[in-house]
Amino acid sequence: MKPKILTSEFFNDDKEILDNLGLKSNISDWKCYDVLNVPGLIFIKNPFTSIGQKYWLKRCIADYTKKPNRLNIDAHRILGDGEDWWTLSNKNEINLKLRNQLRWATLGYHHDWDTKVYSETAKSEFPMDLSKLSKTIIKLLQFPDEFMAEAAIVNFYHPSSTLSGHTDHSEYNLSAPLLSISFGLSAIFLIGGHSLDDKPVAILLRSGDTIIMSKESRLCYHGVPKVLLPKNDQYFNYDNELEEPFKSYMQVTRININVRQVNNV
Ligand SMILES: O=C(O)CCC(=O)C(=O)O
Ligand SMILES: [Fe+2]
């Protein structure tokens, strides 16, 4: 990996913007790297403050899982009108099972897992804060074009979950970068080339670590073969402890937010 020097004027004036987004406001604390074997792949070592990490993981758990966003468990028709997954799963012991059933939530344009086609009719409002976060990170990395956050998948992994090798090619705009932010348990992320025969590189993703798939790497095969069990070094690089019930959930969970631009501008 080759360190990437950030030279933008942006952060001199806008420390407050970074701070409000839960990002480290001192840019010398940002550790960014070009992954040399995978052109266009950028790795940012946790750019979040501990307050920021807690803010975003709670947004993922308690807010982004609410209607009108879509969840994998919608198909099971467990949630009644006005009920949401997180509130219901914390109501009593029985509902702990429900807690573990959540695998993903889709925001903005909802990814259709069968047809893999985005449509104007399957769309909800994209969260402002997540859009701002994505735009800011892309701007900081000095991408020439403004990023439009239009679709996101929030993945929820358990220690035994895996994500098999795939490419993300449903977006109409494949020249815009894709942002992938992880919180909670660490995981091994594999990314190879445009063919499944290309040998992948392995990257350990810890809480807060962010990767950007741009240029050639945007269409590379990638997957998550392993989520790691909690060890002191890897989870809770949030300073203060999280409160319950978030704490116990995050002890067995990895969250990954995948943000995409769908359309050409
Ligand atoms: O969990 C990750 O790190 C990757 C997720 C991913 O590749 C996807 O949702 O398309
Ligand atoms: Fe992906």
UniProtKB/TrEMBL annotation:
- Please list the cofactors this protein needs: Fe(2+)
Q: Which GO terms describe its biological process?
A: oxidative RNA demethylation
Keywords, alphabetical: Dioxygenase, Iron, Metal-binding, Oxidoreductase
- Cofactor note (record): Binds 1 Fe(2+) ion per subunit.
* Fe2OG dioxygenase domain ranges (all copies): 148-263
Signal peptide start-end? none
**Binding of Fe cation, residues:** H166, D168, H222
List the molecular function annotations (GO) for this entry.
broad specificity oxidative DNA demethylase activity; ferrous iron binding; oxidative RNA demethylase activity
GO CC annotations? Answer: cytoplasm; nucleus
Name by which UniProt lists this protein: Fe2OG dioxygenase domain-containing protein
